[in-house]
Amino acid sequence: MMDEGERIISVLDYFLFLAVLSIWGILVVNVILTIAGYVNYLQKVRQPKPQLPAQVPFVSIMVPAHNEGIVIVKTLQALLNFDYPKDRYEIIIINDNSDDNSAELLAEVQSLYPHRNLKVINTDKTNGGKGKSNALNIGLKQARGTLISIYDADNTPQRSALRYLVAELMQDSQLAAVIGKFRTRNKNASLLTRFINIETLSFQWMAQAGREKLFKLCTIPGTNYVIRRDILEEIGGWDVKALAEDTEISFRVYRMGYRIRFQPLAVTWEQEPQTLDVWFHQRTRWVKGNIYVILKNARLLFTKSGRPIRFDLLYFLAIYFLLMTSLILSDSMFVLSVAGIAHSNLVGFSNALWVMAVITFVISTFVTITTEKGEMTLANLLIIIFMYVVYSQMWLAVAAHGMVGYVREQVFHQQAKWYKTKRYQ
């Protein structure tokens, strides 16, 4: 018979095996998405570029902005510089309860372009300051376009971005929205922004391409996309309770039977957090927002109406719950084993799989960045290796903190706070 110590080791072995199995399962799924995304990329670059129809639709570009004086002028200049027909789009800046110099800067730009369709909506604490979704709903009421395009206040899209988004959308009436690609504008600012640059290429837009290829699924990002106004109004606009308003609205679009397409030719450049505290606040908001979306739609997981979003629901559940739990257990066992406090018979097996996981992660991630000019460097290869060891643990801390924060807000009925990402000159 096993003594108490052997029984504990047996239980630890069992849970460690499940943790390793879960981590590898999610890693394999991501590798499959990467391969599919790469195939999708190769196919898209061979396709003819989408062309605007003879009757060019009118587009309302909306930019929610709270205390964005540092970046808003540069963003506005990029939007005014689109190669889309000038008389077929308007720009609406929702200056949302700002207390910096945004209003003055925007008024100056308006005076420089008196003949352009440029509108500034200045909200105050009575109707604004309640987050991005609320600001977008305010802007939608004054928008004139049959298509709505969204850009964040720190974005500098390429001149062709809007044209490619609209041209792609108008090719298929079953498309509710088309999303573009976003790149890291300040990627050389710090080691953190280098991490984010690779994360953006590998785990955001390449994963989008993979999900589109395998499941005809894409998640609307917070910026650089165009959506049909009638569909947006049919689903009731943006959910003001959702911190991840982009994921939430994507799920509602799919449940209506429409599709979202990814068009990598439509590129925007955006600022990313340069310091750990800013990154931590931003990603915590993302975690809370996605947990809200998961729990809001979890009841649909195995229903007919939830079929269009089933993969994404399972994927998010795996990432935010299964993977986090598995990583915590795996890391804890590693620390306890090194400290000599506990020992598992599977530690050697687990370590071998860990080395294989690192190799798989590095190869698959490096392959994704080869699609971008100037990214296939030895420095980036070393950063990817470092990413697995460091950035993954940083994400784990964010996920755990976001979950605890979300639970606390629900228990004490607290309103989720909107943390605006810090901008840089």
Pick out its properties.
alpha/beta; 425 residues; Spore Coat Polysaccharide Biosynthesis Protein SpsA, Chain A; eight-stranded mixed β-sheet; globular; single chain
Explain briefly what this protein structure is:
Keywords: Glycosyltransferase, Membrane, Transferase, Transmembrane, Transmembrane helix. By secondary structure, the chain is of the alpha/beta class.
Furnish the topology, listing elements before pairings:
Layout: H1 4-46, E1 59-65, H2 72-80, E2 89-96, H3 102-112, E3 118-123, H4 132-142, E4 147-150, E5 156-157, H5 161-169, E6 175-184, H6 191-215, E7 225-228, H7 229-234, H8 245-255, E8 259-270, H9 276-297, H10 310-339, H11 347-369, H12 378-389, H13 391-411
Parallel strand pairs: 1-2, 1-4, 2-3, 6-8
Antiparallel strand pairs: 4-7, 5-8, 6-7
Please give a structural write-up.
- InterPro entries: Nucleotide-diphossugar_trans.
- This protein has about 425 residues and is an alpha/beta fold.
- The chain is built from 13 helices and eight strands.
- Strands 3-2-1-4-7-6-8-5 form an eight-stranded mixed sheet, with helices on both faces.
- The radius of gyration is 23 Å and the shape is globular.
- Report the CATH superfamily of the domain at 50-194 and 217-273: Spore Coat Polysaccharide Biosynthesis Protein SpsA, Chain A
Structural class assignment: alpha/beta
**Overall morphology:** globular
Could you spell the SSE succession in H and E letters? HEHEHEHEEHEHEHHEHHHHH
Task: Kindly provide the name of the CATH class of the domain at 50-194 and 217-273.
Answer: Alpha Beta
